[in-house]
Specification:
single chain, alpha+beta, 6 strands, 57% helix
Length: 227
């Protein structure tokens, strides 16, 4: 569906441009641009105004959007309503249009799969394995990656048991493990791997077999130490 995504202030979606801005450590997308793509409305601002009033203002719900400055057609920066990826899904659910139906069906399927995974955690592992197979990763690498995920989950559980709750604290501990393993924090290691700074790509997905083994060993040692 997304034909091309750059690290700049635009993405091209079905040959239509959607403005975006990196803000508060995540991408925010222009609501008006999304509405125009999903509805083909000749007046997307008015369309969004009606959706906003019907779905949020009248029901006195908290807004899903924030106002950020994006370049307008005249080249000037103007405030416009924007949503992050999570709330972009909420926006899709609020739009009554045939063009939005495939997205709604996809969201329903994702929700169904998530419930199934909660009821049967093995399904989640099977789907992760299938994802990596479709990406072309070799079987031996996939086995190490899945084992690494399990070790990491156990370590995270140990941290939570000891009162670690803030994301910042998890990030600090993760950075210490990374420095102990590779001599670099995750952000520096991403640069070393030539991964875009503003990318949410998982660093471990770009590790080779030996790197994954080292990660597992150090993570397991830290888990044992915390006990």
């Amino acid at each position: 569906m997304v034909d091309r995504e750059s690290q700049k202030g635009l993405i091209v979606f079905q040959d239509r441009k959607i403005r975006r801005l990196w803000y508060n450590n995540e991408w925010f997308y222009s609501v008006v641009d999304m509405v125009e793509v999903l509805t083909d409305s000749p007046t997307p601002r008015q369309y969004w105004g009606k959706v906003k009033d019907r779905e949020f203002i009248q029901l006195e719900l908290s807004p899903i959007w924030v106002q950020l400055k994006l370049p307008a057609e005249d080249g000037k920066l103007r405030y416009t309503d924007c949503v992050n990826l999570k709330n972009a899904f909420r926006l899709v659910q609020s739009i009554s249009s045939k063009k939005a139906e495939p997205f709604k069906m996809w969201l329903a399927e994702v929700g169904k799969e998530r419930i199934e995974e909660i009821e049967n955690p093995e399904l989640a592992q099977d789907r992760v394995k299938e994802y990596y197979e479709l990406k072309g990763y070799p079987k031996d690498w996939i086995d190490k990656r899945l084992r690494g995920i399990a070790v990491r989950q156990n370590l995270t559980y140990e941290w939570k048991e000891r009162g670690i709750e803030e994301k910042r604290d998890f990030a600090i501990l993760t950075a210490e493990i990374s420095k102990a393993t590779f001599g670099m924090t995750p952000s520096v290691y991403k640069e070393f791997k030539n991964l875009p700074k503003q990318s949410k790509a998982n660093l471990r997905d770009h590790m080779n077999d030996l790197e994954l083994i080292f990660t597992m060993f150090v993570t397991y040692d830290n888990r044992t130490f915390t006990r």
